[in-house]
Amino acid sequence: MNGADLVSAIELGQCFVAIDPECFAPGFPIRLQEFCDETRNLTPINPSKPPQVPGDPERAHMNMCDELGGIVYKKKQLDHLKNLADRLGVIMRLVEDKI
Predict the structure, then answer these.
(1) Which of 18, 58, 79, 80 has the fewest Cβ atoms within 10 angstroms?
(2) Who wins on pLDDT, 6 or 20?
């Protein structure tokens, strides 16, 4: 992959914002929690994929990493790191699969 391909393939960004729910309205955190609970308890269209609210997938991934004792990377991420290590002449050590 050349530089132009890499730039078009990566086009992404991140923004992190911390908001205090208490600043919105009296009782907002309680109403927000009720909304999240109601959303999670909706009847799913696909029973194998229950409704989620923001943070649920991330929490599930964090729990999986905790259970496995480390961070799980996708194959494409590892391939990219291996190519980078090869280009830089660095030895990349991989841990055996635990899954």
Answers:
(1) 18
(2) 20
